[in-house]
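Quick sanity check, Accessory gene regulator B:
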Amino acid sequence: MIENLSLKIARSVIPENEASGSNIAIISYGVQAIISTLATLLLSLFVAIFFSNKIFELLLFSITFIPIRLLHKGYHCKTFFGCVITSNIMLVCATYLANIIPIKFCLSCLPILLFIEYWASVEKKKGYVIFEATYIFILSILYEGFIIFSFLTLLISNILIIGGKCHGSCIIFKKRNI
């Protein structure tokens, strides 16, 4: 469904004289990413407003999760629907866990999670870990609640990276090389 919609949009955006297969594929992929992100954010906002009244937590989690998740070639759900559902389950779990987990525990676990993420990541780039540590530090200076969301983000990121490494045996993950 989303593939057909993005393909139609891509064909309508590209002039006919420039409409090669690769141009359409690239634009279509970008449109899919935009639609997917918007759908996930809108559903997350809906869930945050109407079911949990945790809009502030949604904002904190998004500010923490999105940049760190974008750093890693990772493992993603096989379908658009699976991605939207999984993202929203992560959101709901993160916003509720943020009120339960003590900050001191999160702070003590952050270095361990950063090490695990480096060890488990496909990229093995120290610069990513340094960026993540700096990003988390700066966010935590601005608001201490970011410590908890940074912990949850790294925990989720590690689960997705490690879980994705067994993509041959795990049915909900697949490797996406972007």
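Posting the structure with no commentary besides this: The helical segments are 2-13, 21-52, 55-71, 80-97, 103-120, 126-142, 145-165.
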